[in-house]
Amino acid sequence: MAEVGIRGVRKTYAGGFEAIKGIDCAVGDGEFLVMLGPSGCGKSTLLRMVAGLETISAGEVSIGGRVVNDLEPKDRDIAMVFQNYALYPHMTVYDNMAYGLKIRGMSKADIESRVHKASDILELRPFLDRRPRQLSGGQRQRVAMGRAIVREPKVFLFDEPLSNLDAKLRTQMRVEINRLQDRLGITSLYVTHDQVEAMTLADRMMVMNGGVAEQIGTPMEVYHRPASTFVAGFIGSPAMNFLPARLTASGVELNGGHAVPLPAGSGGASAAREITLGIRPEHLTLESGQGIGDIAVKVELIEALGADTVVHARLTSSGDPLLARLPGSARVSNGDTLHFAITPGEVHLFDRQTGRRL
Fold first, then answer.
1. What is the band of 3 on the pLDDT scale with cuts at 50, 70, 90?
2. Which of 40, 94, 166, 175 could be a cystine partner for 128, CB 3.0 to 4.6 Å?
3. Among residues 234, 255, 283, which one ends one of the domains?
4. What secondary structure does DSSP assign to 5-27, as a single string?
5. Residues 218 and 113 placed together within one structural domain of the fold
């Protein structure tokens, strides 16, 4: 096990395109860090620089206190699991898992011990004599992880390993990876565009946008105190509502005159300031006296999802769209006029120009 240090790392391609714009992050020994963001944000590029598959234009990457900028991937003591399983189709599961150890010249007894240990962890022992074509997608991905485990590396690197699986298998594999991390405790960096994977797997998460780390924190820190409108809109389903507003000494004024008082002690603005008000759909309530503010909306569409009901509406005063997630028992219909209050402590204010949290 080892710490991973990422200090001032940049990646610039020919032509001047800067894919990574200076990222600093320290991954603790045994920590599971998830790098989350949309396609093209630089998360896989950063992971590949840690792995040694991409050169570093500036900055330092260290593993276990040793700077690895100039080391080949094979010398970094890392193991990588890719989106594609990359299994040898003509080899059995046992041979796929053992192949890297044979190349390293390990003894047959040591190889057998490691493969059997990993196969027991991943519940692959009954499949060791099968070939990849005889396995399901989830079993193939477990073989790919087994191939990484037998290396006994200092660091695991996962590059969207569940993207090729259907929704049910992804859920099962998230559980498998969680159990694996609990048992092995190996420092891990995990790339995904799926916020559910990030929220359920991460000790901490790095939300990336345009080659920049917008926020690094625990899943709950990122959810409850997003650092920017990008982070706030990317985390959470349905996505956070963003309403144009003005911050005044008395509170927040929405377009059309709706007022949202701020909690005591939070302070306002001595002069009116243009802001963006963020409200998560699950923090809007119909319960009178259970929240702050009074936001009147007209319902346009109802999505009945069983346990939840998602309400698509517009403010009666300004026409701005608003989403609310209510209990499935809520009795609402298209065309209804509703009055929402906001759960205390769940008001998010962002600078209108920069998008940064106030």
1. very high
2. 94
3. 234
4. EEEEEEEE-TTS-EEEEEEEEEE
5. yes
